[in-house]
Amino acid sequence: MSTSTPGLRSGVLGTADITFFVVSAAAPLTVMAGVAPVVLLLGGIGAPAGYLIAGITLAVFAVGFTTMSRHVRSGGAFYAFITRGLGRPAGVAGAMVAMLGYNGMEIGVYGLLGSATAGTLKALLGWDVPWLVIALAGLALTFLAGYRSIDFGAKILAVLLLAETAILLLLAGGVLLKADLGVTSFAPGNVAVPGTIVVLAFAFGAFTGFESTVIYRREARDPERTVPRATYIALAFLGLFYAFIVWIVIQAYGPAKVLDAAAADPAGLFFSAITTYVGAWAADLMHILIVTSIFASLLAFHNAINRYTLALAQEGVLPAALGRVHPRHQSPYAAGIAQTALGLVVVAAFGLAGADPYTHLLLWVNTLGMMSLVTLMAVAAVAVYFYFRRTPSNEGLWRTRVAPLLAAVLLTGALGLIATKISLFTGGVAVVNAVILILIPAVFAAGLLAAFRLRRGRPEVYRRFAAEPDEGSDPCPQPTSS
After folding, report:
1. Which pTM value belongs to this model?
2. Residues whose CB falls within 8 Å of the CB of residue 228, separated by 6 or more in sequence, listed in order
3. pLDDT tens digits for 450-459?
4. 296 exposed, middle or buried (CB, 10 Å; 0-12, 13-18, 19+)?
């Protein structure tokens, strides 16, 4: 006798909810206060334009990506798109790279949570708390928040994202009222410099997570509308907000002095600016909100990973036990347990080895995750092009051919750019660089081999991989038991 297990909640996420998830994954406050000073040092005062260029490039990708989302209803997101365009072996390989990428993006951030929280507790309260203790507590809190319903998580992220955005806008307000303003950052002579290449490499990393809108298709209201809207809103917000805030901090110090200030104290650049233009209390608040910004990013990536794991378990590629959904919260709790266990192993290994939470755990693991996701986007863009070349549609030539092909070229160039500048992301450890550059294609190749084994040993599972659901059914049905 077969009994159906619960499914994910359908129709509970609107455009704003999905936007909160994907923008929170990018952690705007952390990217600005933690990374932008380094970007300024390497790229110069033309850095704001670099964020705009990266946003425009990813918007071109989003054209074909969101068009494809109206034609593919499977719960597999990226790997379903790749399967439609390039075949099942490439789809399985893409799924493996997606798991590597999203896990890398989340697990590495536990190092940042540990180091940033320890620094905040020391600065504000005088407490010395080991970063590993904080990271392990963060693992538990992230799991518990993901264990609850998706709309519960959306509410948490809405509050945290609004708070971190507000503190940066508070800084912006103070600078706009008191500083001498100029637009030299956007002058061609400051943009068309070698350092802009470095800015672009960092800027692409700052957008990571925006593409996860399609992962929430099954839980979205009117997904044909909400998913594309959320994608474009997230991209527009991140691109404009990053460029604006970096321009603001340049105005705070002045174009002639900001680089010296960043060189003298990169970690304190934003805190000194908000102290000067708003007050010391605002700097203390910013320290606290960076911690909540990091937690919001962790929760957003945790939710995305769980839904990928759920879909692959229900496909039969991963163990069926990972496809269980909580009967009351309707959350993929089994996938959450597995993801938390993996995070525990990696974080504990770095901690027990005496590794630095920022320069080792965050930079090494996060760089692997970021490069995996850029690779995945480039492959997906190629897949969209080939899908529409074979499949008649009334979507128009720009959406189905030109934009996907242009995005594939631009993203491949971005990936090559990041690869050539990888030492800037990892701290220049040659062995780590080599492992990252080898691991991504190795995982893709392993995925191809897994697909061929699946085709030979479990042909029925292989045939159904990333299949479109029947009209009116759940896009990724729950497993059944006898």
Report:
1. 0.88
2. 62, 66, 69, 70
3. 999 999 999 9
4. buried
